[in-house]
Design goal:
The chain has about 150 residues and is mainly alpha-helical. It is built from 7 helices and 2 strands.
């Protein structure tokens, strides 16, 4: 196998799928939707560094994403009450509404694409992505556990 060619194709295809199904479909730049979706479920807010670590972004990339989301009115940054040197990011009501209204559409679009692939190919894609994610982010995930629960 030509791994260089495979890597190029993976980058090209994954960007195309993300842009077509979940990335910029709702006027959000790449990376904003996952951050907003995650923050919308955090009532206590989060420190940007912890958020970046949790979602696998670099801190500079997280700063750019949060700047953009804040400009749109979807998040707000507030000094930490216990440590004024730290900042906590909260999802605004508008951000929660946007995440709620649009997350199902992105999921539905991607689900439609996966269903066209067929069950076998969709499971193989997810299995490969789980392994790649695990190796990339040094996460200990149980490959295929979600499939075993459904079986």
């Amino acid at each position: 196998m030509d791994y260089e060619d495979a890597a190029k194709k993976l980058i090209m295809y994954s960007r195309g799928v993300a842009k077509g199904s979940i990335g910029t479909a709702y006027g959000m730049s790449m990376g904003e939707d996952p951050v907003l979706e995650y923050l919308s479920r955090q009532d206590e807010g989060m420190n940007p560094s912890d958020l970046a670590s949790k979602l696998g972004y670099t801190r500079p990339r997280m700063t750019r994403i949060l700047d953009s989301l804040e400009a749109k009115g979807y998040v707000k940054r507030v000094p930490d009450e216990n440590d004024r040197r730290r900042v906590i990011v909260y999802c605004t009501d508008e951000g929660r509404a946007y995440a709620h209204d649009n997350s199902s559409g992105g999921v539905s679009g991607l689900a439609a694409t996966l269903s066209k692939m067929g069950e076998h190919d969709a499971r193989e894609l997810l299995r490969g992505l789980e392994i790649a994610y695990s190796l990339t982010y040094d996460k200990d995930i149980s490959i295929g556990e979600s499939d075993k629960k459904r079986a």
